[in-house]
């Protein structure tokens, strides 16, 4: 909430009818608090909402098998290799390596599209 949003919110709260709004003194106190503590409040909220361990890095590549050292040219198809770097603040990272054939890549992409659709539905409702 920036300064203009804060002022608009406090003005609306002080004008509420029926004694359920804020007094001018309460609004001034909230304004002073927010201006002095906004960064700390934001940092605290972010820390509380962060999933741990978090994804610190992702690298990937696609390998194609062209043959083996014996001249065998049997082709398995492309293989996607993915490495995830996971970690908690203040601790060393852990690495997870994943290998996907084309079918598995398509399944993961389908699941990701389903997740995106679900997120879009939720966001559009609000």
Task: Describe the overall structure.
The protein has about 130 residues and is α+β, with helices and mostly antiparallel strands. The protein has helices spanning about 5-15, 25-50, 100-125; strands spanning about 55-65, 80-85, 95-100. A three-stranded antiparallel β-sheet has the order 1-2-3. Strand 2 (about 80-85) and strand 3 form a beta hairpin. Helix 1 (about 5-15) crosses helix 2 (about 25-50). The longest helix has 26 residues, at about 25-50. The chain is elongated, with a radius of gyration of 26 Å. This is COMM domain-containing protein 1. Belongs to the COMM domain-containing protein 1 family. It comes from Xenotaenia resolanae.
Brief synopsis:
With 126 residues, the protein is α+β, with helices and mostly antiparallel strands.
Structural class, from helix and strand content?
Answer: alpha+beta
Q: How does the overall form come out from the CA principal axes?
A: elongated
C-alpha Rg, in Å? Answer: 26 Å
The helix fraction, in percent, is 40-55%
Distance between the first and last residues' Cα: 18 Å
* Portion in strands: 15-25%
Describe the strand arrangement of the main beta sheet, using strand numbers: 1-2-3
Instruction: Average the pLDDT over all residues and give the rounded result.
Output: 86
**Low-pLDDT residue intervals, each spanning 5 or more residues:** none
